[in-house]
Amino acid sequence: QVQLQESGPGLVKPSQTLSLTCTVSGESVTTSYYYWTWIRQPPGKGLEWMGAIGSDGSTYYSPSLKSHTSISRDTSKNQFSLQLTSVIPEDTGVYYCARYNYYWALYDYWGQGTQVTVSS
User: Fold this and answer.
1) Is the four-CA dihedral 22, 84, 32, 46 of positive or negative sign?
2) How does DSSP classify residue 33?
3) Sorting pLDDT into bands at 50, 70 and 90, what band is 114?
């Protein structure tokens, strides 16, 4: 059974960097056909795809967030991480990590989500 679990601070001050980690169990982040993804949902809005890291370590970012987003991985811990720099209150929301299954073209496993609030 594949499980994903987000971790990180729930409160970040404006202009600071938000760092979140997704710990994966039940599947290696280096297994082919999967993209390990960050998705967020601002309050009262829909899901927003932020970016992903592939099995070979290649990264992909939303054009609107690319300038201040970085996704990396630690294969020894089977984790992947998100860094969002210079956060603003509009970055408040629930952040999810998820696995995109390239073979089936769907997100088949999700973390439970973690609430992040940007406020001074």
Assistant:
1) positive
2) T
3) very high
Phi and psi at 89, nearest 5°, equal -55, -30
What angle (nearest 5°) sits at the alpha carbon of residue 91, between those of residues 54 and 118? 125
Write the DSSP string, 48-98: EEEEEEETTS-EEE-TTTGGGEEEEEETTTTEEEEEE-S--GGG-EEEEEE
Instruction: List, for residues 25-79, the tens digit of each pLDDT value.
Output: 999 999 999 999 999 999 999 999 999 999 999 999 999 999 999 999 999 999 9
**What are the structure tokens assigned to 65, written together?**
């967030």
CB contact at 8 A, 104 and 112: no
Q: Are 117 and 40 in contact (CB under 8 A)?
A: no
User: Residue 40: in which H helix or E strand, if any?
Assistant: strand 34-41
Backbone angles phi, psi at 61, to 5 degrees: -130, 150
- 112 and 5 Cβ atoms separated by less than 8 Å: yes
